[in-house]
Design goal:
Radius of gyration: 20 Å
Strand order of the largest sheet: 2-1-3-10-9-4-5-8-6-7
Number of strands: 10
Order of helices and strands: EHEHHEHEEHHEHEHEHEEHHH
Oligomer: single chain
CATH superfamily of the largest domain: Isopropylmalate Dehydrogenase
Shape: globular
CATH topology of the largest domain: Isopropylmalate Dehydrogenase
CATH architecture of the largest domain: 3-Layer(aba) Sandwich
Structural class: alpha/beta
Helix content: 40-55%
Strand content: 15-25%
Bound molecules: adenosine-5'-triphosphate
């Protein structure tokens, strides 16, 4: 049997991006050490704010090509507050990659991990398990993605042009309904989609809302519901365990995913994937965290869980059940490491930083496979 080798473009980026990526690759190497069916070959590529400061380019052509050629992309974090473009905005090549590779669905699983303290006192917090699906090709980020379409700003006013299109909304909702169906079939969830918008005030959102209900009719096996974004901010704090799959507009998804990460122990526990029809990019939900960069305090769990999402995506895309099995093994090892009660991240008020958490996951992997 030939061993399948997947090409993985690795963009570690700035700040804690590089730290959590090193830890993640060590964990992946341990995870796949005995795997005979497939392996990963890493292609390291440059990019980010430091790279921009040194070369004047945030995302070199060579890096973009490496991402296009790869089977998947592992991405740390990019951008630093003191390095900016001339218009004052931060360096964010992740937005350019989303546009260039058409990574339209930002998938952010929010799952309570055993042993990780929640800010919510309610015992049902242990049941939190939902997925935010953020539209990433337009919405209020449209003007940032397509500056040529943006109305001209001067020193008296500035604009951000938002856009909602039928095509982008339909594919987002179809993605969300298909995901809810997969989760239901896997007995993981109840089969429910909740659209989040602001259709009561903004006409573009009323259009988004209308398309949602049109698509919902095509998925009769999935329960469809709806919530305005302001009410959702409240509900995610009061009863987050009630949700399953939650599609929303770009900017709303950006904000709600940070709020949601706060419910399960912080950004360091919150993985994400940027998915298109062809490419997949996997990165933690957090940024470069300049306040803790270089101190060894970053929690690598979000990066490690994002790598698990990558293995599952590769497995499903290539019909390779072994990759899905390894993804599940990795998730179980993260659960076992935190669930043991022996580690607590700095973010959750503990003492354990990047090395200690990665070592605990590696040790849990060893135990699982009996080695
Ligand atoms: P961006 O705008 O690039 O998404 P952000 O403004 O959301 O970034 P982050 O860099 O994600 O900011 O950091 C927000 C806060 O969360 C900081 O206080 C940071 O230290 C903390 N944080 C983020 N990621 C981690 C992590 N992996 N481990 C521990 N703390 C983290």
């Amino acid at each position: 049997m030939t061993k399948q080798l997947f090409k993985i473009a690795v963009l570690q980026g700035d700040g804690i991006g590089a730290e959590v990526m090193d830890a993640c690759i060590k964990v992946l190497e341990r995870l796949l050490a005995d795997q005979s069916r497939f392996g990963l070959s890493y292609i390291h590529a440059a990019g980010g704010a430091q790279h921009y400061a040194q070369t004047g380019t945030a995302l070199p052509e060579r890096t973009l090509r490496a991402c296009e050629d790869a089977d998947a992309i592992l991405f740390g974090a990019m951008g630093l507050p003191h390095i900016r473009y001339p218009d004052g905005t931060e360096i964010s090549p992740q937005l350019d990659l989303r546009k260039d590779l058409d990574l339209y669905a930002g998938v952010r699983p929010i799952r309570a991990i055993p042993g990780v303290p929640s800010v919510l006192a309610d015992p049902r917090a242990a049941q939190i398990d939902f997925v935010l699906v953020r539209e990433q090709s337009e919405g209020l980020f449209y003007g940032r993605l397509y500056p040529e379409k943006q109305p001209k700003a001067d020193d008296s006013e500035a604009f951000d042009l938002g856009r909602i299109s039928r095509k982008a909304s339909e594919r987002l909702f179809d993605f969300a309904f298909r995901l809810a169906r997969r989760r239901k079939d896997a007995n993981q969830a109840k089969g429910q989609v909740t659209c989040v918008d602001k259709a009561n005030v903004l006409s573009s959102m009323a259009f988004f809302h209308k398309i949602y209900w049109e698509r919902a009719k095509l998925y009769a096996d999935i329960k469809a519901s709806h919530c305005y974004v302001d009410a959702m901010a409240l509900n995610l704090v009061k009863r987050p365990w009630d949700y399953d799959v939650v599609p929303t507009e770009n900017q709303f998804g950006d904000i709600l995913s940070d709020l949601a990460a706060g419910l399960i122990g912080g950004l360091g526990m919150s993985p994400s994937a940027d998915i298109g029809d062809k490419h997949g990019l996997f990165q933690p939900s957090h940024g470069t965290a300049p306040d803790i960069a270089g101190l060894g305090k970053a929690n690598p769990a979000a990066m490690i869980l994002s790598a698990g999402m990558m293995l599952e995506w590769l497995g499903e895309k290539h019909g390779l059940s072994e990759a899905c099995t390894e993804a599940a093994r990795l998730r179980q090892a993260v659960d076992a490491a935190f669930g043991s009660g022996k580690i607590r991240s700095v973010e959750s008020g503990g003492q354990d930083g990047t090395q200690a958490i990665a070592a605990a996951v590696i040790s849990a992997l060893g135990k699982k496979s009996g080695k």
